Amino acid sequence: MDESKGFSGKAGGQRTPVEATDDAFWDQFWADTATSVQDVFALVPAAEIRAVREESPSNLATLCYKAVEKLVQGAESGCHSEKEKQIVLNCSRLLTRVLPYIFEDPDWRGFFWSTVPGAGRGGQGEDDDENARPLAESLLLAIADLLFCPDFTVQSHRRSTVDSAEDVHSLDSCEYIWEAGVGFAHSPQPNYIHDMNRMELLKLLLTCFSEAMYLPPAPESGSTNPWVQFFCSTENRHALPLFTSLLNTVCAYDPVGYGIPYNHLLFSDYREPLVEEAAQVLIVTLDHDSASSASPTVDGTTTGTAMDDADPPGPENLFVNYLSRIHREEDFQFILKGIARLLSNPLLQTYLPNSTKKIQFHQELLVLFWKLCDFNKKFLFFVLKSSDVLDILVPILFFLNDARADQSRVGLMHIGVFILLLLSGERNFGVRLNKPYSVRVPMDIPVFTGTHADLLIVVFHKIITSGHQRLQPLFDCLLTIVVNVSPYLKSLSMVTANKLLHLLEAFSTAWFLFSAAQNHHLVFFLLEVFNNIIQYQFDGNSNLVYAIIRKRSVFHQLANLPTDPPAIHKALQRRRRTPEPLSRTGSQEGTSMEGSRPAAPAEPGTLKTSLVATPGIDKLTEKSQVSEDGTLRSLEPEPQQSSEDGSPAKGEPSQAWREQRRPSSSSASGQWSPTPEWVLSWKSKLPLQTIMRLLQVLVPQVEKICIDKGLTDESEILRFLQHGTLVGLLPVPHPILIRKYQANSGTAMWFRTYMWGVIYLRNVDPPVWYDTDVKLFEIQRV
């Protein structure tokens, strides 16, 4: 690209439109040999693109037509010469640079979907304008063809140079899948040049899809992205091999490099940028709202019917379709092992710091894992079938714990919690958590000896007591996960038992219960956890029973919670003197694990993108009851049911506080005030019977042992509790309630804003969208 004139000098300097036929003029934009995408970004400044857009619109239009035409020609010819390859790459870079400035201007947005005279759908050269293809379609099909172009993006299968070139039109791209894995057994020789070329084309593809960033978040998330819709339709003959190539490239990637420490310092890893780009393109193509999808097979089959030949879901997005129909065990194993290996990468602690390359795209991987579980129930069941699920759980808990103090990573906290909520709706997840936790990943949490359930609860406690304020909306979700797994937890450690009681202590103070309309739900969740464990897992849980006995005053205080106006008023006065919602006192913090670093807040000035609000737990989940035979029965909410039975309300708060609450205030910002009627309405439903009965039976026996033996020693009491039994003494066990995640348009919208926010922030070299007028989210500095 001739630097002397600059971009607007060339394209905008001519106030008069330049004819599209003036090849000498247009060729100067892509004929240059040695440019990189970074060069194009430097040579074509934002101000100049905007100037051409405003002052010489017909030249910008022609530039786009011509650049797309060059890509189409390259795809048609098969890019045999070096010169053709260079032109394709330069046009690709130029379009990547210019497209965001077309998307940011509403007047230009329809431009790529207008038809180009002479570009017939019916093949070459039919000048039938009725049949003309929109520019966007020509561009997307050319990119798809170029991604399977022998000697450019894939290896040629020709035996010798004498063979005629492979015909691009008859080529079966399924034989050219980029990597072994799902549905493809052959792993091609790695080729640096091919990887780089693929990456440039995928960057352009992602930029095409990014029109979504320039539309504000719409409440009805049925708004499909026309670029994605077309690219993932039957119009794209490469849809299957491309989906497979992207998935396999991500899941086969091993950043460690064949187990040789420091290998990444010797060989620059050119695969990683391609893997990142592939992961980003993949999650964007899978942005499909399963809640509004027409077909029930993807979203809700509880029966686990064969999905391999199920009907395609809703809009015919082939990528979603293929993903939902993967069904071979070895394919599931390959995907799960790959994602687990990559998620665990930041945790790999060898004795040699920096000996393994640290990857940065764990958020994209979490979105991909979410999509797999959400669209393919067979995959979800496979994940939970063995303890392999723990290889996903441990990295997620690591990320949650590490990000808890960092305002810029709220999105990461949410997706981690959403995945655990989805998994916790399945009985097998709770069962798997009983596996002893021995991997010692350095984490800033108290040292304990126990199971993966202990790890989960200790990390959740840490998030609740020492995360930042913006995580409060997640407390309901965190405790719902603990409730869902609690009936299956065979033995909690003493550290964990104390953490659970510390949470109850903090959440059941009068000022906390009275300071917001929903706070009492947290107490209901914790009581439900204790009841599940006492009723279903009493035998192995002497630590928890002992902790409940020691902290029995908390339960008595709850039962005797004052409800008269002066007491309510007094409790709220105390609150004004207590700034922190949860003190750490009384939780016996203990020392953190060796080698761990405390969770750090974001560096000042860190960029973050805003997120839409997530639906409340009542919208996120659906209650199901576990029957005798272990099957789940959905519980439809009773109409007009008030919210105080411990389950978050189905949008029907009780009359007593509905009147108290001004429509403007949904927060605890002082406009809402608690009344005695409101307190009584839920206090009377606190499920304390089981615990009170347990205390009634065991406390006198424990006290007698202490007096008889003059004991101050815990171990003797624990031994007594281990051998004790409450059979026949407790109330009849209640049915187990599970709150299963259910897809809804609110979460679909949240995922869309989160995913594009991640992609925006992660693409800094070159900064594809930086400083353009995006509407889907706001860019904020911490």
Write a structural description.
This is HID1 domain containing. It comes from Saimiri boliviensis boliviensis (Bolivian squirrel monkey). InterPro entries: Hid-1/Ecm30. Residues 291-310, 566-675 are annotated as: Disordered. With 782 residues, this protein is mostly helical. It has a domain at 1-119 and 131-156 and 192-209. α15 (329-344) runs parallel beside α18 (390-403). The longest helix is centred in the first third of the chain and has 22 residues, at 82-103. It is elongated, with a radius of gyration of 30 Å. The two termini are 39 Å apart.
Number of helices: 34
Low-confidence stretches: 118-127, 293-307, 309-315, 583-588, 638-670
Amino-to-carboxy terminus distance? 39 Å
Helicity range: 40-55%
Architecture blueprint of SSEs:
Layout: H1 7-11, H2 23-27, H3 37-43, H4 46-55, H5 57-77, H6 82-103, E1 115-120, E2 132-134, H7 135-146, H8 192-209, H9 226-231, H10 239-252, H11 263-266, H12 271-285, H13 296-300, H14 318-325, H15 329-344, H16 362-375, H17 377-385, H18 390-403, H19 410-424, H20 427-432, H21 452-466, H22 475-485, H23 494-507, H24 510-514, H25 520-536, H26 542-550, H27 552-559, H28 565-577, E3 607-609, H29 617-620, E4 621-626, E5 632-634, H30 655-658, H31 676-683, H32 689-709, H33 714-723, E6 737-741, H34 745-762, E7 779-781
Antiparallel strand pairs: 1-2, 3-7, 4-5, 4-6
